[in-house]
Amino acid sequence: MYKEIYKIIKKYDKIIIARHKGVDPDAMASEIGLRDSIRLTFPTKEVYAIGTGTKRFSYIGKLDKVDDYSNSLLIVCDTPDIKRIDGADPKDFDYVIKIDHHPFIDDFGGLEFIKPNASSACELIMELLEKTRLKCNSSIAKTLYYGLVSDSNRFLFESSSYETFNLVSNYLRKYPFNIKEVYDNLYARPLSEVRLKGYIASNMTVTESGVAYIDITDDMQTRFDVDSAAAGNMVNDFNFINEVLVWVTITEDVKQGIIRISIRSRGPVINKLAEKYNGGGHKFASGARVTTFEEAHLLVKDLNELCEEYIKENDLGD
Ligand code: AMP
Question: What is residue 238's three-state secondary structure?
Answer without folding.
Answer: coil
